[in-house]
Amino acid sequence: MGTLRKIDSRMSRSKASCTETKARHEETKWRERVTSLEAVLPTLATKEDLARDVGSLRSEVHAGFGNLRSEMHQSIATLRGEMHQEFGKVRNEMAREIADVRRDMSTEFVSVRREIGAVHHDLHLLGTNLHREMHMLTWRLIGTIVTVSTALVAATHFLSNMR
Predict the structure, then answer these.
(1) Is residue 56 within 8 Å of residue 48, measured between CB atoms?
(2) Which helix (H) or strand (E) is 42 found in, with range?
(3) Sequence-separated (6 or more) residues with CB below 8 Å from residue 22
(4) Using CA atoms, how far apart are residues 82 and 76, in angstroms rounded to an integer?
(5) Is residue 14 within a helix (H) or strand (E), and if so which, with residue range?
(6) What digits encode the pLDDT tens for the residues 66-121?
(7) Do residues 45 and 53 touch, judged by C-beta distance below 8 A?
(8) Band of the pLDDT at 58, cuts 50, 70, 90?
(9) Which bin fits 97, alpha (ψ -120 to 50), beta or left (φ > 0)?
(10) Which residues does 45 contact at the CB level (< 8 Å), separation at least 6?
């Protein structure tokens, strides 16, 4: 029995030492974790740090958008200026072309007016000649009728006196 007691006490000691070893190991592990966390904690951001970073990020984004907006305004202004110049060139070219067309039309209208004037003059001369010719023919007809009538009256008178 004595050996059993020795074995039994050794076993209980070994169980105790295993438990202690485990506990020590756990404690060491926890200390290492706490130490690593304590080392990391100063590097973590606080609410103030986050607010400051968000504020600076906001102002940077705002400034970026402001720069973008001003660049866009400048580009649009440049584009508007170029478009204005090009439209001015087109307007001037159109004005020149329209002036040429108006000049050509004016020249053509002058020649058409001349031709109309010539036709009007010819029609006037034709009307005048027609009137003169009709006047002459009317007097010829009157002369012929008077002559023939006189001759008929004379013939009738001659025939009536012959009996």
Answers:
(1) no
(2) none
(3) none
(4) 10
(5) helix 2-40
(6) 999 999 999 999 999 999 999 999 999 999 999 999 999 999 999 999 999 999 99
(7) yes
(8) confident
(9) alpha
(10) 53
Structure tokens at 5: 């007691």
**162 by DSSP, 3-state: which?**
coil
Count CB neighbours of 104 within 10 A: 10
Q: Give CA separation, 153 vs 20, 32, 140, 141, in Å.
A: 182, 168, 19, 18
Tell me which residue has tokens 């400034």: 63
Distance CA 16, CA 10 (A): 10
Q: How far apart are CA 150 and CA 157, in angstroms?
A: 10
Match 């706490």 to its residue by tokens.
Answer: 34
Q: Looking at the whole model, is its pTM more than 0.70? A: no
Q: For 44, which DSSP code?
A: S
3-state helix, strand, coil in the chain (%, to 5): 95, 0, 5
Q: Which pLDDT score, from 0 to 100, does residue 47 have?
A: 74
CB atoms within 10 A of CB 68: 10
- Backbone region of residue 46 per phi and psi (left: phi > 0; alpha: psi in -120 to 50; beta: other values): beta
DSSP 8-state symbol, 61: H
